[in-house]
UniProtKB/TrEMBL annotation:
Cofactor(s) it depends on: Zn(2+)
Residues the record lists as binding Zn(2+) 1: H641, C643, D656, E665, C726
Lineage: Bacteria, Pseudomonadati, Pseudomonadota, Betaproteobacteria, Burkholderiales
Any one GO molecular-function label of the UniProt entry: zinc ion binding
Organism the protein comes from: Paraburkholderia domus
Designated name of the protein: 5-methyltetrahydropteroyltriglutamate--homocysteine methyltransferase
Similarity comment text for this entry: Belongs to the vitamin-B12 independent methionine synthase family.
Residues reported to bind 5-methyltetrahydropteroyltri-L-glutamate: R16, E17, L18, K19, K112, N117, W561, E605
Keyword Repeat: yes
Cobalamin-independent methionine synthase MetE N-terminal domain span: 4-309
EC number: 2.1.1.14
Broad enzyme group: transferase
Residue positions binding L-homocysteine: I431, G432, S433, E484, D599
Function: Catalyzes the transfer of a methyl group from 5-methyltetrahydrofolate to homocysteine resulting in methionine formation.
């Protein structure tokens, strides 16, 4: 009989219990005993959901107080040496300092987990790194589950993926040189699992879905030849793309099974079916772990019939990847329309989908009611008149190449903009958002609950905007923003004003740490019935003589940070969104807004894992941005913002966006990311972030000046902007004002220094 399992479950809780417990701990309002208690309650609750769904295994080790890569570093004992922490005695306070920084050290670098919107903490490894062991939290959680008599299957990130995703502060250091020591530590982990009677361990190696060179591929054999003699059964997990080209190599490793993603790469099944010996488990990831649409259970079960006949209990059924990328449960959704809700499956519902497929393979008659319900929902979705809009489809079909180009090249535009905008050298600005204070959140919540009138709410938000404008003027910023006081989220705010989107009450997904997002659902063709933020931008501009930058979310980020319909190509939906943003940009220009920022932090995130698939994505993603930005005059300056991703390998595409100014995250890597832009000779304006907004740490003016001086060494000062890494929504006002004051001072000091050098 086919067996069932998952790779991970959302850790935050259906009501974001972990988030609130974390933030209470950070504020000093509760102790670590309270936080650990909430965490234990969540783990047990999620394990019981898996047991209730009759899964054959319960995933353990997928919980993290902040991030699973940070957890693994804490387990291995490979913490950054610069913090001076004892790995074996790591406290929760120290754990969070690694993620958020402290007065002495900046936080560990953070970047995107493959092509998702989840951020992980990048391990810092060097010649002196040891893997002598750290905290025992992983084993404590296994013991918790065993005490509940649960069928435990621990899940860990595999050694090769861990090394691949790490970085070294030592130039030229070969991370693979650490593999022998790392494998010894994994063997010790396997020994402790053996002592607890654990049969199976899942080691996730999504790096197998990347373009790896021979040295890294050979490392798999070196590592797993050793791990294979541990006496424990290892399921090697792959996901997010195909690993079929490595099937012959992986099939010869002494592992006992392989998990493959048949949502992202269904074409790989036949390769693995042929390559993997019959006595090894083939775990089929047939339920989408990254989207929320109900699965066609009958079709999936039918497609697995022959494979089940061949493999029996050596066929496992699972989601494509960890369910951390989807919300916890539909049970908390009371306001979604009944029709739309019937089309959806969140993490808890996906557990039942996995079990239903296994039941259909074992006993089709018993599974018939669940299969019939899924069929009815799918039929209703296909027939719904809410999905298609003929006018939108006609407009997409009428897009021309001319719509994807500015009127003049950058050199001509920049001359016009210098003359009209009259900005100083090294102009200072922010990315867009300012602190979302409790008062702002309370007012928004009251308005949503109907306890505040629309006019009263508008006046309250305008008063908050006026306060933000005054603070920016007092700080001496050159280009202001309206502060996004009315925005709950950079995607949801705009999506709420568009047709074709739906919204959940509690569809939260962890973005990083305690930061959660509630992705909107694109269920139909997208249309803008009226301007979205023109009034707010114009009001802010009326409050000051300085330039106010209008800030929009770009089409690719709107796409990537939503749950996107799966019944048409993503590129088509991106074009619909591009037309929406284009209309807003043109309206902002008509209203007198002279600098417009189109944020695209998810541009790199959408890039496929395999390079052979890059050109197709980059072509439509770049075109979508250019269509969004292409309708304005040369005098209007278009900015874009990107953060927490590696951009160096797609710099030609970023240059093809043809934004007048790009702002990027560079502070955590000490301007390392800027090197790629310099080597590529990026031609347009650039604002490398000079301080990390995801940490409460306030760097000094001298520290920021040093970063700016490094930037000036490689980029002409007349093309440089000065700004933070990202938005300031999650920060408090005292640290925000202190950091921005230092930033402005750093820019002024460097301006004077540059002016004196010219004399």
């Amino acid at each position: 009989m086919a067996r069932t399992h998952i790779s991970g479950f959302p850790r935050i809780g259906a009501q974001r219990e972990l988030k609130f417990a974390q933030e209470s701990f950070w504020r000093g309002e509760s102790d670590d005993a309270y936080l650990k208690g909430i965490a234990k309650e969540l783990r047990i609750r999620h394990w019981e959901l898996q047991r209730a769904a009759k899964l054959d295994f319960v995933a353990v080790g997928d919980f993290a107080y902040y991030d699973q890569m940070l957890n693994l570093s804490a387990l291995l004992g490979s913490l950054p040496e610069r913090f001076g922490f004892d790995p074996a005695k790591l406290s929760l306070t120290q754990y969070y300092e690694l993620a958020r920084g402290n007065k002495a050290q900046p936080a560990m670098e953070m970047t995107k987990w493959f092509d998702t919107n989840y951020h992980y903490l990048v391990p810092e490894l060097g010649p002196d790194t040891t893997f002598n062991g750290g905290v025992d939290w992983f084993f404590d959680e296994i013991d918790e589950a065993l005490a509940l008599h649960l069928p435990v299957k621990p899940v860990l990130i595999g050694p090769i993926t861990y090394l691949w995703l790490s970085k070294s502060p030592v130039p030229g250091f070969d991370r693979l040189s650490l593999l022998p020591k790392l494998v010894i530590r994994y063997m010790r982990i396997l020994d402790q699992l053996k002592q607890r009677g654990i049969e199976w361990l899942q080691l996730d190696e999504p790096a197998l879905c990347l373009d790896l060179n021979e040295e890294w591929l050979e490392a798999f054999k070196a590592a797993y030849d050793v791990l294979g003699v541990s006496g424990r059964k290892v399921l090697l997990g792959t996901y997010f793309d195909t690993a079929a080209d490595h099937a012959p190599m992986v099939s010869q490793l002494p592992v006992h099974g392989v998990h493959i993603d048949l949502i992202r790469a269904p074409q790989q099944l036949q390769v693995w079916r042929t390559a993997l010996p019959a006595d090894k488990v083939l775990s089929a990831g047939v339920i989408d772990g990254r989207n929320i649409w109900r699965a066609d259970l009958g079709e999936i079960a039918g497609s697995l019939d022959a494979l089940h006949a061949e493999r029996g209990e050596h066929l496992w059924i699972a989601p494509s990847c960890s369910l951390i990328h989807v919300p916890v449960t539909l049970a908390c959704e009371t306001k979604l329309g009944a029709e739309l809700k019937s089309w959806l499956a969140f993490a808890t519902e996906k557990l039942d989908e996995v079990s239903t497929i296994a039941l259909a393979l074992r006993d089709p008659v018993a599974a018939e009611p669940a299969l019939a319900a899924a069929d009815a929902a799918l039929d209703a979705r296909r027939a719904s008149g809410a999905v298609m809009n003929v006018l939108v489809q006609r407009r997409v079909a009428s897009i021309t190449d001319a719509m994807a180009s500015r009127k003049s090249p950058f050199t001509a535009r920049s001359s016009v903009q210098r003359h009209s905008l009259k900005l100083p050298l090294l102009p200072t600005t922010t990315i867009g958002s300012f602190p979302q204070t409790p008062a702002i959140r309370q007012a928004r919540a009251a308005y949503k609950r109907g306890k505040m009138r629309a006019l009263d709410y508008l006046e309250r938000m305008r008063a908050e905007t006026a306060s933000v404008i005054r603070k920016q003027e007092e700080l001496g910023l050159d280009v202001l923003v309206h502060g996004e006081v009315e925005r709950n989220d950079m995607v949801e705010f705009f999506a709420d004003k568009l047709w074709g989107f739906a919204f959940t009450e509690n569809g939260w997904v962890q973005n990083y740490g305690s930061q959660c997002v509630k992705p909107p659902i694109i269920y139909g063709d997208v249309y803008r019935p009226e301007p979205m933020m023109v009034d707010a931008a114009c009001h802010a501009q009326s409050l000051t003589e300085r330039l106010v930058k209008g800030v929009l979310t770009g089409p690719v980020t709107m796409l990537e940070w939503s749950f996107v319909r799966d019944d048409q190509p993503r590129s088509t939906t991106a074009l619909q969104l591009a037309l929406v943003i284009r209309d807003e940009v043109i309206d902002l220009e008509k209203a007198g807004i002279r600098i417009i920022q189109i944020d695209e932090p998810a541009f790199r995130e959408g890039l496929p894992l395999r390079q052979e698939d890059w050109p197709a994505y980059l072509e439509w993603a770049t075109r979508a941005f250019r269509i969004a930005a292409g309708g304005v005059s040369d005098a209007t300056q278009i900015h874009t913002h990107m953060c927490y991703s590696e951009f160096n390998d797609i710099l030609p595409a970023i240059a093809d966006l043809d934004a007048d100014v790009i702002t990027i995250e560079t502070s955590r890597s000490s301007m390392e990311l800027l090197d790629g832009f310099v080597e590529f000779a990026y031609p347009n304006g650039i604002g490398p972030g000079v301080y990390d907004t995801h940490s409460p740490r306030v760097p000094s003016a001298d520290a920021m000046q040093q970063l700016l001086e490094r930037a000036c060494d490689v980029v002409p000062a007349e093309r440089l902007w000065v700004n933070p890494d990202c938005g300031l929504k999650t920060r408090g006002w005292p640290e925000t004002e202190a950091a921005l004051s230092n930033m402005v001072q750093a820019a002024k000091t460097l301006r004077q220094k540059l002016a004196e050098s010219i004399r």
